[in-house]
Amino acid sequence: MELFLQQTLAGLATGTIYACIALAIVMTYQAIGHLNFAQGEMAMFSTFIAWQLIQWGTPYWIAFLATVAVSFAGGVLIERIVLRPIQHAPVLSHVAVFIGLLAILNSLAGFIWDFNVKPFPTPFGTAPLLGNGFIDAHQAGMIAITLLLLAFLYGFFRFTRVGLAMRAAAHDPVSARLVGIRVGWMTALGWGMAAAIGAIAGMMIAPIVFLEPNMMLGVLLYGFAGAVLGGLSSPVGAVIGGLIVGVVENLAGTFIPVIGGELKFTIALVIIVAVLVMKPQGLLGRPVLHRV
Amino acid sequence: MLESVPEPAVPDVLAPSLIGRNGLMLALLAVALLLPFVVQNFLIFQLTLVLVYAIAIIGLNLLTGFNGQFSLGHSAFYALGAYVAAMLMDKVDFPYPATLPVAGIACFVFGFLFGLPALRLEGVYLALATFALAVATPQILKLSPLEYWTGGVQGIVINKPDAPFGLPLTQDQWLYFFTLFVTVIMTVLAHNLVASRTGRAMMAIRDNPTAARSMGINIALYKSLTFGVSALYTGIAGALGAIVVQFVAPDSFTFLLSITLLVGLVVGGVGWIPGAFFGGAFVLFVPNFAESISKGLSGAVYGVMIILLIFVLPTGASGLVRAALQRLRAHKIQ
Amino acid sequence: MRVSSHRLRLAALASLAGFAVALATPAVAQKKYDTGATDTEIKVGNIMPYSGPASAYAVIGKTEAAYFNKINAEGGINGRKINFISYDDGYSPPKAVEQARKLVESDGVLLIFQSLGTPSNSAIMKYMNAKKVPQLFVATGATKFGDPKDFPWTMGWQPNYQSECRIYAKYLIDNHSNGKVGILYQNDDYGKDVMKGLKDGLGDKTSMIIAEVPYETSDPTVDSQIVKLKASGADIFLNIATPKFAAQAIKKVAEVGWKPLQIVNNVSASVGGVLTPAGLDNATGVLSTAYLKDPTDPSWKDDPAFKAWSAFMDKYYPDGNRTDSFTVYGYLTGQTLVQVLKQCGDDLTRENVMKQAANLKLDLDMLLPGISIHTTPTSYYPLQQLQMEKFDGTRWERFGPVISGEVGG
Fold first, then answer.
1. Out of B125, B255, B314, whose CB is closest to A89?
2. In a 3-state reduction of DSSP, which class is residue C244?
3. SS3 C239
4. pLDDT by residue (tens digit) across B260-293?
5. d(CA B140, CA B76)
6. Exposed site from A263, B35, B331, C232, fewest CB < 10 Å?
């Protein structure tokens, strides 16, 4: 029983990592109607920028804000330079472009900063919270930041004109254009925000998994699982989905004998797929109706 | 995204006169038959791998391009085919040509069964389910209880077949011809499948499931069948790949293989069968080319090449061929 | 008349030639070459994961290229320059086969040197042996790459994983025979090889192992595994992980307040690459083994060997990360190959390369004192000695004798 509790807590802590990146995934999906395979590498690259700034002696929070700003600009630029020219290409061509982006960012980061793991600072410290250190100050801080982001996004999409315009542009570009929304710029803005959120996620995750060019590879897989489980149209769902993935995976790895340890992620995925078969739009997602 | 898979390069422009096309095909085949006598063994080996990838990409194309189901899990079918072939050759001394049908059937059954629950999933959700399959595959292959058959993390080494009947061919040349033979059969079959009633049903489901259902098409059956056939193609490619490379190991069949096949599909052209050959050549040769430009940045160069290609040819090689044929036609009419 | 003079001339020519040969033979052994070697050049092939998940290891290939540049700049080996051709396989076995064939059949290399990774080397081993091309000093510690009977053309270099773990096993039996061992291992050939070595080494004390927990390289963290190990009640923690995961594990062990005796395998004993990210405080007291000089260890500051290595890095690999012990590894393997090629003299046939590689007795000064390279036609493990060490918070302190963990010995 104690082990159960400990694994659940540890799972929640790891789950916040997934929740963080799942939120960025949902953000992209909301704003541009796409799943971006390069999301993890973009976050990794941003985190390297922050690391470099800190190495140069910039105080943490200034580096943090600068990185968010640079990432936002980077996201907008990527949209303008790479995706604008192929906006009418088939969806799978976009997927190929994302794979291309992923390869470029990964390789560039390795070229500039090499492949050794680097410690990344945390602004919250690592003092243990909740007794045994299954959740520490950094992880608590990360949960807080994730919730703040969630609240911000909720407010942004619900109550601001830009947020509403972005939703409209993603949902129905033609009608949105008719009511005077500049759909192209809304998409670029969405990319910028997704990149900025990814940067925050990267900077929160790096102190735990260490910074290196491949750091997001595994995390992104789990983030996708969390986002899809929660329902891609729901930021709250993404956070809950991420946490569930973390906990389920730990419990499966601990309590299923023989194959549990070796197949812990697989078992978690099978459970998720089973849930999706029952509830094809994810836990909190809205069903999409097709016009015939 | 991924909710709707793109409209394919419509093939009717690609079918000028039947004679002209068959003539072109025969010419290409003649070149393919002569090539192994003029190039080095090593290049023959690479060309064989291109054919192997092409078969796998045709499999993926049947599912994604013609039936509108998205898959990130084809590395799993490729792995299953490869392991079936390797285990049969290693454990029960099966002759290598006989492993192909077994691998194909095993993958068909597995793909069909996997397709059943996947019926309820669409677009991105289906992508996740297939992705789960891709991630699980290497882990299952490594599983200790299965080690006796799979060789565990060490994999299985298999022998390379000699040319039969005392043919004066090197092992590489023979394997190339063997693979080419299989490839031709598989390509013709795929072509006929797509042109048949079944193929039209597959495409109807892709284009408008609701309308297809109201026309009396059994969507569940066709979707699962397509999954099975697609897996069969990829599994046969996997078995051939195992024989050609002479080695299978869990690390050969990671999620990255699925990505490779997907890139090959897109650059070749979604919904156009001959594109698979272009795609196969792209994923095999372009990384080598990228590496020759810069070792440290080979990944970046490869990424740039993919993006540039999509810039120039948003629908892959099929777009190029279509444009060329259109121009040719316009020329003829004048 | 004419004929006879012609004959005469021929005979004279023949005797002259014979004389020349007779003169030459004792002085210079007849030059003999296989593909890849000429009077001016030796082509050496190599396969590295420059891209993909294992790219951190590519530093080894870069260091080796730099080292051969140095050798060439200093005049080469017996007057021949090394042409080092290194290809990327992205850590994918099929790609490794393709690149190996390209090296052998298209580039025509004399041998393949330091191809990296167990899966890639397993994939090409049969091909290399069928072609009778040396697959020399493979960059993996898997025990199977030292089997002269079945694979006479394949040889390892670093101490193999099983040897290393026998040393830990011996240490545990001697010092903590009542301990309870919990193991974290990477779920692949490397992790399993290490586990086998440990179990063989423990012999009838295998019951000391009370928990074995695997992780996958795609796992973001090993937190859950550490929690599980702690709960098992183990008081000895064996950390068989690659650098990133080893660092995460050491950090997490400290965070959950678990205080076992920790052993980390030497793949991850780098101060700069593992212990610093994990936190030097957290790593204090960790045990490991070593065979080469850690470049971050301040005790080598005035060591001439270290200075020579340092000068090499400055001149030939200035971008290289000096805290990364892979640069020392690449430097040492480069030196080993150069020695083999020197020993070959003018007989640069593949057969002779293997013969010389299997006949090495070599002291390299960046290896720890007392450790040397030694091979015989029946022993294809160049390095088998290691020394235990303990991390004191700033540097590794070696203790005890240099131990040989010979497999089967």
1. B314
2. helix
3. strand
4. 999 999 999 888 888 899 999 999 999 888 888 8
5. 10
6. B331
Burial C112-141 (b: 16+ CB within 10 A, else e): bbbbbbbbbbbbbbbbbbebebbbbbbbbb
**Residue A284 belongs to a domain:** no
- Residue A30: give the domain boundaries: 2-278
Please write the tens of the pLDDT for every residue from C216-261: 887 888 988 998 899 889 999 999 998 889 999 999 898 888 999 9
What kind of fold does domain B11-333 have according to CATH?
ABC transporter involved in vitamin B12 uptake, BtuC (1.10.3470)
In chain C, which residues have pLDDT < 50? 1-5, 7-8, 10, 13-27, 408-409
Closest chain C residue to A120, measured at CA: C277
- For residues C150 and C46, membership in a common domain is answered with yes
SS3 B2: coil
Residues facing C389 on adjacent strands: C288, C398
Q: Among C381, C356, C386, which residue's Cα sits nearest to residue C42?
A: C356
Hey, is the C-beta of C97 within 8 angstroms of any chain B C-beta?
A: yes
Q: In chain C, which among 207-236 make CB contacts under 8 A with chain A?
A: 213-214, 216-221, 223-225, 227-228, 231
- pTM, to two decimals: 0.86
Q: How many domains does chain C have?
A: 2
Interface membership of A245 toward B (CB under 8 Å): no
Residue A20: pLDDT over 70: yes
Instruction: List A157's β-bridge partners, or say none.
Output: none
Interface subset of C 113-142, CB within 8 angstroms of B: 119, 122-123, 125-127
Between CA C398 and CA B297 the distance in angstroms is: 39
The secondary structure element, H or E, covering residue C42 is: strand C41-48
Confidence band (pLDDT; 50, 70, 90) for A140? confident
Give tens-digit pLDDT for B197-243: 888 888 988 888 888 888 888 888 888 999 999 999 999 999 999 99
* CB-based contact C157:C396 (threshold 8 Å): no
Range of the domain at C274: 161-290+388-404
Nearest chain C residue to A254 by CA: give it: C228
What is the arithmetic mean of pLDDT over A211-233?
86
Which residues are within 8 A (CB) of B257 and not within 5 positions of it... i.e. 6 or more apart?
B74, B75, B78, B79, B134
User: Residue A131: its pLDDT value, please?
Assistant: 59
Mean pLDDT across chain C, nearest whole number?
Answer: 86
Interface test with A, best of C253, C255, C325 (most A CBs within 10 A): C255
Chain C nearest CA to B208, separation (Å):
38
Chain C positions touching A253 (Cβ under 8 A) are 224-225, 228
CB contact under 8 A, B132 and A273: yes
pLDDT of residue B6: 46
